C-alpha cells in the first residue's frame, strides 16, 4: 500500500481488480450451488422461466444484494477515477437532456458507462421488479363522451388480457361516460375488478381558468386534479390516456413504484417528438421543459407524497406563472407537468421509453425497441390515430385491432389464488344457475333467460333535445348483423329519435362502426342511439335485446317495431298528433300501426293510404303474414281499416302480435322467450292483462321488406325439442300471468287451449 499511496491510479485499479475477483468467485459459487440443487438438471434454463421456491428466492436475493453492493463500489471507484482525470464536467444547459440527467436520478445501481437509452430499450428479467401476488393495482383514466368511452374499452381489454393481479379502475367521467361505462362493467362482471366513478363536473372549476388549445378541451387538464379527485387513502395510481394499448402485464409498471427514491413523486417517459425543443416552425414557442420534456400518456403518481408536498398549490403556481407569457396551453396538462418538472427535476422518475411508445408524427419511438418483446405500452397520441405514419405501424395496428375485436367474454376469468368478493349481480346469477336442473330438456332455454350479456350503450355519438309539448316518440327496434342494410332506409322514413339494440360480437361491432362512419345518412343522424348487446350463448335473446333498446329511450312514448319494417313517410308526425287526440297521457292505450308486406326487394314505396290500397288490390302488397300466419294480425281487421277514417278499438285474440305505440312505462318483454316464437305475442298479452285498449290508427301503415329466413326460425322448424320447449315456456308464462293478474288472466289459458 505504500507503493500505491504515491500513485492513486494504481490504488484505484487494485480495488477494481479485487472487486472483479470477488464477483467472479460469487458467480462460480452460484453455478456450483445450482448444480447441486438440481442434481444435474440443465443450467442453461433462463432464470425467468424457472419455477422458484422460497429457499432459492431467499438465496438469490442475498446474492443479488451482494452483487449490487459490488456494482455500487465499482461505480464509485470509476467515478473517482473520472474525477481525478477531470472527466466529470457537467453538461451545458443547452445539452441538459433527460437521458443524461436520469443516470443520477434513478435509484437503481445502474452503470454510468451505459447510456440511459441503452438501459431503457431492453428489458432483463433479472432487473424487472414485480408486484406482490394478489396486490391490488389502481388505474385512473379521464374519460368523457361517446368516443372516449368506446376507446377506453380497448385499453381495458389489453390490460385484462395480460393481468395477473386484481385491479381497481378509477374513471373521471362526464354524465355520458358514466352511464356507458357503469352499465358496461356491471354487465361485464369481470372477477377481481373494481370500478369507481368520479364526477368530472365537480372538478371543472379546478381547471376551467386555464386556456387550453388542445382538442381534448377541459378534460385534457383533469389529470392535474387527481390528488383531490381520488380517495385520500389511495397512495399510488397509474394514470393512463384512453388511447393506450398494453402489450404486457400492468403489474410490471406498478412495480416500478418501488424504484422511486424518497423524493420522487411522478414517473414519466420522455417525450419522443421534438415539440419541447422548439423551432418546429416559425415562432414555435413551447412551454418550458427539461430537455425533450415528458409525455403524460402514462404516469405513475405517488399520490401520498404529492399531497405531502402540496401538489395542488405547486401546479397552480406553475401554471399561473407560465400563463403570463404563454397565454394558453397547447398540450393541456402535459405542458403544466413539464413546466413543474423543469423547476423540480428531483421529483420525477424517468421510466424506460418502452412504457410509452408514442406513435405521433415525427416520433423517435423506433429507438425504444429492437424486438417485439421490448414493447410494453403503445400510445396512439397522434390526432390521426391508426392512420399515423410509422415504420412499424402495421404491426402496431394489428396489435391494437386484436384487442379492439377481442371477445370480451373471454376476459371473465378468475385469478387463481387471489380471493375476491363477488359482486351482488354475480352472486345472484350464480345462485340462479345452481337452481337449474341440468337434466331438464329445456335447460339451455332456461339458462339463456338468466344469462347476463355485456351491454355497451350509445356506441356512437348521440344527441337529443326534448320537445316542448311532451308528445315525442322514439322508434324502438333490435337487429343483428344480417339486418344492417335496413338502417339507412329506416332513417330516411323516420326523422324522429330512434333507439336500436344490436346483437353482435366484438368484431361485428367494429364492422358496424366502420359501416356507420362511412354512411352519409347514418353519420348525419345524431338522434339515433345504438346500443350493443354482445353475443353469448347459443340462442338469440331477442326480448332481452328489445328491452335494452326500450330502457334507453328519452321520450315519453315509444313505437315498438322490428327493423325489417319501413314506416310510411310522415308517420312520426302523424303519431305525435294521434297521441294528443287520443289523450294517451291520461289513458292506457296501445295504438296499432297496421302491417303489410311485399315479396319484392325493389318497391316503389306508397306515399299515401290510397296508393297502398291500390298496390294491395294489384297484388304488389299483402297484409302481413297473410300466407303463413294469418292470425298474428287478423284482429287488426284490415277490411274495416280500408274504409276507416277514425281510430277504432279491437279486442285481443290469441296469437295477436301487432306493432304498437305505447307510453314508455309499458311492461318490458318477457326474456324467457328467445330465438323464434312468442316473443311479441307474450308482450301484447301482458298489455291486454294490464287493461291497455288496442286502438287501430286509420291512416298509418308500415311495410315489411323481404329477407332470408333467420337461423332461429330454421331451428324452430327442424327441431322437435325446440318446439317442445317453446310449448313448455308458453305454459309457464300462462301460469305466471295467472299468479300476477288473477282470474282476469284465465281467458289467455282458455284461448290457448281452443287453438
From TrEMBL:
Gene Ontology cellular component terms for the protein in this record: Golgi membrane
A single BP term in Gene Ontology: protein O-linked glycosylation via mannose
Subcellular location: Golgi apparatus membrane
Major place of residence: Golgi
Coiled-coil spans in chain: 60-87
PANTHER family named among the record's database cross-references: GLYCOSYLTRANSFERASE-RELATED (PTHR12270), XYLOSYL- AND GLUCURONYLTRANSFERASE LARGE2 (PTHR12270:SF23)
Full protein name: LARGE xylosyl- and glucuronyltransferase 2
Annotated organism of origin: Cyprinus carpio carpio
Amino acid at each position: 500500500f505504500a507503493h500505491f499511496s504515491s500513485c492513486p491510479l494504481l490504488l484505484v485499479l487494485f480495488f477494481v481488480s479485487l472487486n472483479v475477483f470477488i464477483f467472479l468467485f460469487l458467480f462460480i459459487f452460484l453455478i456450483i450451488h445450482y448444480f447441486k440443487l438440481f442434481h444435474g438438471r440443465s443450467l442453461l434454463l433462463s432464470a425467468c422461466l424457472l419455477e422458484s421456491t422460497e429457499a432459492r428466492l431467499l438465496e438469490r436475493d442475498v446474492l443479488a444484494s451482494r452483487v449490487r453492493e459490488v456494482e455500487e463500489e465499482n461505480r464509485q471507484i470509476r467515478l473517482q477515477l473520472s474525477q481525478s482525470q477531470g472527466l466529470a464536467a457537467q453538461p451545458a444547459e443547452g445539452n441538459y437532456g433527460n437521458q443524461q440527467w436520469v443516470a443520477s436520478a434513478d435509484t437503481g445501481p445502474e452503470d454510468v458507462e451505459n447510456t440511459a437509452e441503452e438501459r431503457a430499450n431492453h428489458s432483463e428479467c433479472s432487473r424487472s421488479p414485480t408486484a406482490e401476488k394478489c396486490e391490488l393495482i389502481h388505474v385512473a383514466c379521464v374519460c368523457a363522451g361517446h368516443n372516449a368511452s368506446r376507446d377506453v374499452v380497448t385499453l381495458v381489454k389489453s390490460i385484462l388480457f395480460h393481468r395477473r393481479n386484481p385491479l381497481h379502475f378509477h374513471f373521471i367521467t362526464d354524465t355520458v361516460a358514466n352511464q356507458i361505462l357503469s352499465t358496461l362493467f356491471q354487465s361485464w362482471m369481470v372477477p377481481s375488478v373494481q370500478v369507481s366513478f368520479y364526477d368530472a363536473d365537480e372538478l371543472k372549476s379546478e381547471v376551467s381558468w386555464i386556456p387550453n388549445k388542445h382538442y381534448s378541451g377541459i378534460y385534457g387538464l383533469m389529470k392535474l386534479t387527481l390528488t383531490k379527485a381520488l380517495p385520500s387513502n389511495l397512495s399510488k395510481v397509474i394514470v393512463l390516456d384512453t388511447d393506450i394499448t398494453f402489450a404486457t402485464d400492468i403489474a410490471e409498471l406498478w412495480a416500478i413504484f418501488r424504484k422511486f427514491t424518497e423524493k420522487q413523486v411522478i414517473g414519466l417517459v420522455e417525450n419522443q417528438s421534438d415539440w419541447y425543443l422548439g423551432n418546429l416552425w416559425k415562432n414555435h414557442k413551447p412551454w418550458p421543459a427539461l430537455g425533450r420534456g415528458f409525455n403524460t400518456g402514462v404516469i405513475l403518481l405517488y399520490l401520498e407524497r404529492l399531497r405531502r408536498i402540496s401538489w395542488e398549490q405547486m401546479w397552480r403556481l406553475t401554471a399561473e406563472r407560465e400563463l403570463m407569457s404563454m397565454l394558453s396551453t397547447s398540450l393541456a396538462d402535459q405542458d403544466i407537468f413539464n413546466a413543474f418538472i423543469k423547476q423540480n427535476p428531483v421529483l420525477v422518475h424517468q421510466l424506460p421509453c418502452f412504457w410509452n411508445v408514442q406513435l405521433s408524427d415525427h416520433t423517435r419511438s423506433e429507438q425504444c425497441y429492437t424486438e417485439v418483446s421490448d414493447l410494453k405500452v403503445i400510445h396512439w397520441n397522434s390526432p390521426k390515430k391508426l392512420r399515423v405514419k410509422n415504420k412499424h405501424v402495421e404491426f402496431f395496428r394489428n396489435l391494437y385491432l386484436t384487442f379492439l375485436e377481442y371477445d370480451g367474454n373471454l376476459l371473465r376469468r378468475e385469478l387463481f389464488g387471489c380471493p375476491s368478493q363477488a359482486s351482488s349481480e354475480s352472486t345472484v346469477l350464480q345462485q340462479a344457475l345452481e337452481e337449474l336442473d341440468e337434466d331438464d330438456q329445456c335447460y339451455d332455454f332456461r339458462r339463456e333467460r338468466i344469462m347476463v350479456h355485456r351491454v355497451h350503450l350509445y356506441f356512437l355519438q348521440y344527441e337529443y333535445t326534448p320537445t316542448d309539448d311532451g308528445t315525442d316518440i322514439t322508434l324502438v327496434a333490435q337487429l343483428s348483423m344480417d339486418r344492417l342494410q335496413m338502417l339507412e332506409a329506416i332513417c330516411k322514413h323516420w326523422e324522429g329519435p330512434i333507439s336500436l339494440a344490436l346483437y353482435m360480437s366484438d368484431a361485428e361491432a367494429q364492422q358496424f362502426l366502420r359501416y356507420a362512419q362511412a354512411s352519409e345518412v347514418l353519420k348525419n343522424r345524431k338522434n339515433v342511439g345504438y346500443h350493443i348487446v354482445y353475443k353469448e350463448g347459443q340462442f338469440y335473446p331477442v326480448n332481452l335485446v328489445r328491452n335494452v333498446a326500450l330502457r334507453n329511450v328519452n321520450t315519453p312514448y315509444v313505437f315498438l317495431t322490428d327493423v325489417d319494417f319501413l314506416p310510411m313517410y310522415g308517420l312520426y308526425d302523424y303519431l305525435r298528433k294521434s297521441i294528443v287526440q287520443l289523450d294517451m297521457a291520461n289513458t292506457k292505450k296501445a295504438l296499432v300501426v297496421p302491417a303489410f308486406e311485399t315479396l319484392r326487394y325493389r318497391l316503389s314505396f306508397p306515399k299515401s293510404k290510397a296508393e297502398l290500397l291500390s298496390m294491395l288490390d294489384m297484388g304488389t302488397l299483402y297484409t302481413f303474414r297473410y300466407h303463413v300466419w294469418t292470425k298474428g294480425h287478423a284482429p287488426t281487421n284490415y277490411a274495416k281499416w280500408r274504409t276507416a277514417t277514425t281510430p277504432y278499438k279491437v279486442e285481443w285474440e290469441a296469437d295477436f302480435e301487432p306493432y304498437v305505440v305505447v307510453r314508455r312505462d309499458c311492461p318490458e318483454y318477457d326474456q324467457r322467450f328467445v330465438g323464434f316464437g312468442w316473443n311479441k305475442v307474450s308482450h301484447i298479452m301482458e298489455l291486454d292483462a294490464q287493461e291497455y285498449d288496442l286502438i287501430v290508427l286509420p291512416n298509418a301503415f308500415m311495410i315489411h321488406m323481404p329477407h332470408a329466413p333467420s337461423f332461429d326460425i330454421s331451428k324452430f322448424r327442424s327441431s322437435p325439442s325446440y318446439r317442445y320447449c317453446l310449448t313448455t315456456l308458453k305454459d309457464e308464462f300462462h301460469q305466471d300471468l295467472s299468479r300476477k293478474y288473477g282470474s282476469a288472466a284465465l281467458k289467455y289459458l282458455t284461448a290457448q287451449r281452443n287453438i
